[in-house]
Amino acid sequence: MYSPPAKPTDRQRMHRAFAQAAQKLNTTVAGPEVWGWRGRTLSCRAHHPDHGDCWLRLLSAPEDKAAGKIWDGNGQAAALFDGHVRKPPLYDTSTAVGDGHAYRAEVHQYVNEPAVSPSPVLHSDPEPAATWWDALRTDLDYLSGVPTDRVAVRQEWADRAVPRFLGIPAPHITDWTTAHGDLHTANLTSTTPYLLDWEGFGRAPAGYDAAMLLAYSLLVPAFAQRVRHAFPVLKTEPGRIAQIIVITELLQSASRGDHPELVPALRYLATDLA
């Protein structure tokens, strides 16, 4: 869930590290704080003397786990995609260690338009313009063809998780592309659209991003139908497989307390796909 850490001591620790990162990166806080998933990140609008308005984001992890896909994702995405797709460029980064935790601070371009929704699960129809869909499809098409050795989904995980959560054998994934990895309406802005939060990008089943956007939109059938129209891959066999993978991921996440309101719709869609 998008919320502060449950423990007051963790909130204090994050606030302290955020203030230190702001000073180190020569930024001045200029907006309200925004917490990420279970308080793992803390962000806010800031001002930089050279870049002007920017977005300061702090990621925290236990010191012995400060590595890998999530830790390096935004930096690697900047190297591959800044200037090629609609995403806020990354200006600067810093790292620090303290209290048994590691911290990665990032200064991104500030985007002066809101996200489509405040949380990943869509609850009302934003009715974006046709140009919004065209731009999103163009960027995802470009992204899908960029080589990377990062992995967003593993066949080995699917082999274990699909039978557990759906009670069916895992599909064999044969079509792989590069995916944003966390495509939902809280990571898309309302006009351009900008694609936000690239920490999970990597190789995934073809159609994975479209399947993720669809799954998080199931409570708004009109928008979900437009996702299906915008991304014909969802009507193909690779798209069916991608949807099964995404449904399994979200059911696994729901088993840990995330977005339980989605579970009935996810299971209904899984029945149609099986």
TrEMBL record:
Keyword terms, alphabetized: Transferase
UniProt domain Aminoglycoside phosphotransferase: residue ranges: 134-230
GO MF term set: transferase activity
Keyword Cell cycle part of the UniProt annotation: no
Residue spans crossing the bilayer: none
InterPro entries on file: Aminoglycoside_PTrfase, Kinase-like_dom_sf
UniProt cross-references to SUPFAM superfamilies, sorted A to Z: Protein kinase-like (PK-like)
Protein name: Phosphotransferase
Native source species: Streptomyces phaeolivaceus
